[in-house]
Structures are given as structure tokens and as C-alpha cells.
Amino acid sequence: MANKLAWRTFDGNSWSDETVVADVEQVANLAMVADQGNLALLFSANTEQKVVVFDEHGNPALPAKNDQSDDARFAVLEQQTAAYAALTSSPPSLRSFVVASAYYRGAVRYVHSGVDPTGPLLWQTYRPATNKWSTSEYTFPNTACGPGPAVCVFAGVLHCFHQGVDSENGDGNTNVYWCVSDGLDWSADRATPFTSPSALAIAAHAGMLFCAYLRD
Prior knowledge:
By secondary structure, the chain is mainly β. The chain contains two helices and 17 strands.
């Protein structure tokens, strides 16, 4: 049975119903990026590059073949990645893991899982104005585990989504959780109304938080 690529929106109070984009065996290169005032959901499925464009009101077009080069779409992300890679003060631990990041209140917030896949997420800050990192890594409170983190700023608050792992025996847990931060600390995890066996993509657009994910 094929998996389904789907998306939902969060308006700050409640989640929308699920909208299925396509039936796919596997999905790769899942991303949501700003594109000239619109939002582009990009993914690879069945050897084809696909795109779903949401207009300035958040209304989606039908999935289409992505014939456009993604150089412009990913220009800002590539610049941030290059700047991060060039940081001589970058903690070695951050370079060892897949890192999600977002700029929030004067600092880049980096989030990653630790050596133990059943352990909590870790986060650290970097302030470009002073070229300084936080003095240590901080542990997310009340977080069972955090593989595949994704972060973005929505409604003036930093949001972090991640997959779950059974902390007792390490088996896969397809539940998706999220927590929020005011820049000082993180809230406890909350469960979303959907599940996903793989990492997801999130972005703020048109006054809503968009979340794209794969489900079986």
C-alpha cells in the first residue's frame, strides 16, 4: 500500500483537516520555502520532482512537475548553510548531527538530536551580531525524543516539530510532537493530530503554520 503525502495548517488554536497531495511509495527532498510571496511545497516522488504552490492567501494549486530550477528558492537557505559552515566557533557537536535552525529575536536557534536517539532534543543559540554561541547546549524539557526536528517562527513564537521514539525500548514511534519557545525556554511537548514515519517540513505563510508530512 502506498504512503500518502499530506499537509495541514495550524491557525494558532486548532489544526485544519488533512489534505492529501499524492499517493507515493517514498518521498524525498521534502521542503517548504517562500517563493515570491507564495509558499512552495517541494518533494521528489516516483523519480519526479514535484511542487505545490500556495498563493498569498494560502490556497494551493494542483501538484505539478517542478521544471523550475530551485536555485532561487533555496538561495537564502544555502546562504545560511554556507555561513554556518564557515563559523570557526561552531561547536563540534552541532556538526555531527542534522540541524534545524531559525532566526528568532536576534539569535539563530539550532536544534538537533543527541548521540542517544532515545534522548531529548538539544538546542543552542548563536548571535551573529557578537559572533558568540551560548555557553552550553540546553536540553529540551519533557521531550521524550527528537529525531527529525523542524523549526520555524509563527505568530511571534518559535515552533519545533519532531518525531517520537519509544524511550523505553527505542522502537519507532510515528507520532509527531511539537513545542514552542519564547526564546528563553521550551514548553512541554504536545501531540499533533497526525503521524509520520519520516521527517516533515514546516513554514509560516498567510497567517498560518503549514506542515507537510508523509503518512502510511
